[in-house]
Amino acid sequence: MNLQIIMWGIGVIEALVLSPVLPGIINKVKAFFAGRKGPSVFQLYYDIIKLMKKRAVRSTTAGALFTIAPMTALITSVLMLILLPFAGKASPLGFAGDILLFLYLGGLGRVLTVCGAMDTGSSFEGMGASRECQFAILTEGTFMAVAGALMLMTRSFSLGGMLNFITTSDYNRYGIILVLLAVAMFVVVLTECCRLPVDDPDTHLELTMIHEAMILDNSGDELGIIHYAASLKMWILLSVEAMMILPADMNPVILLLTETLTVLFGSILIGTIESVTARYRFLKVPQFLVGSTALAFIAMFLLSLLQIQGA
Amino acid sequence: MTFISEILLALFLLAALRLAGASRLKHCIAVTACQGTVTALYPLFVHNWAEFSHDTNMQMILLALLTLGVKGFLLPALLVRAMHTAQVKRELEPLVSYPVSILLVVLFACGAFTLCVKYPVAPAGTSVLAAPSALIAIFTGLFIIVARKKAITQSIGFLFFENGITLFGACMKLEYGFLVEFGILLDVFVLVFVMGIAVFHISREFEHIDADRLHLLGDTMEPAKQGETAK
Fold this sequence. Notes:
The structure holds 2 protein chains of 2 kinds.
Chain A: H1 2-18, H2 21-34, H3 43-52, H4 64-83, H5 98-119, H6 123-154, H7 159-163, H8 171-192, H9 211-214, H10 220-245, H11 252-276, H12 285-310
Helix pairs in contact in A: 1-11, 2-11, 3-10, 4-5, 4-10, 5-6, 6-8, 6-12, 8-10, 8-12, 10-11
Chain B: H1 2-21, H2 25-46, H3 54-86, H4 98-118, H5 130-147, H6 151-172, H7 177-206, H8 223-230
């Protein structure tokens, strides 16, 4: 028991320390596909350190919301992180229904980022904010459908019970359902982390930007905080995915290790997807997200059928 | 064996989702071909080989090969040819938009699962997934027929619908199943063949294959004026 709580703490600290490595890995994979050498895997650390030494420049029209938005994004991400069960140990802060808190902490962070973006008075950022909200509605639906299927599967309402449920012998029974849920969840990760094929993080064309458009006016230490919060969010969501599909009946040390490796593998997968696909047209994105919601719903139906059969 | 058959059924189910969201005809045809392949292979994985006589087993294999040939290769190839001849690549203005179609398929799935849980139709021993998957394919096929305008998409919908019926037959383990399924196969083949030819002719006459323009064929009134008054 003691070992587990220590491993949980290590899991949290690991996420806080290692998360900026994920965008680095994605860029390295993309560079590999393009035949380039690419920036170092630790580039985001250097960027964040450089940005933290600088002072933020604020637009004269920007008010208080613009100032608190980056910090809120960071705080909500950290709160989401400490609700997660690492190494098979439910978070000490967990309670039945904490999945909703988890989801809406993400929502709070997003609302304040959007408000901060609108606060700059730039119509360009308003455009990014509007797109962010449009897609967020659909991803929330997908996430809730995945969560609903997990609740149905585990009969538990807390993140701790829902995510570390599968045991090695369950794969035969729940294999198909887990594959469907994992795909749906991966679409959530891609959308929430603003990756291709929904949003292109590299572009600076005004017609195609979403997240980048919102943070265009942020600078200095505030931009550093936003970058860090975004990478932390990616680590959190990939962890959810990893915990969902990994068997929990392992030694906590090995479990934490496999979770970390799965998260790193997830970033390699994102990099591969970004290298081989093009961004969807905006009109096609809702269809993509609705499709992933449909996958989660189908998984839910299959699950209820399996449970009726099993009972 | 059961694990493989469950995966096949899940693929069958996902094909319905994909078809509802696909706008390129190439993708629609590919999805239908995959679904046809699954339909052909599924009975082989659930058939109890030891229980039946040699003749029945040979019939099973023959039927699977025929279905595979017709539904997996021949009809999709015919549809691809029709697509090239009619020079259509995508369904441009569907009557029901793609996201809505996907949601409707989810609704069909919900209905089919509820129905099959409440009134179990499949005999004992068949997978619980089989009957709902077949029903979903039937609903989706019918839906595609009414919700899309191009004649070629409608024939794809019909093929999809028939695949559902075949799967339904396969999971019912009918007596004289061979004869029944063989009849259905012939029926589908002839219908899709005729539709394919019809598409050639429609596209040659009208330079498009929107089935809703067929009302222009009236010979009593001037169709353009009628359209204006309707607006």
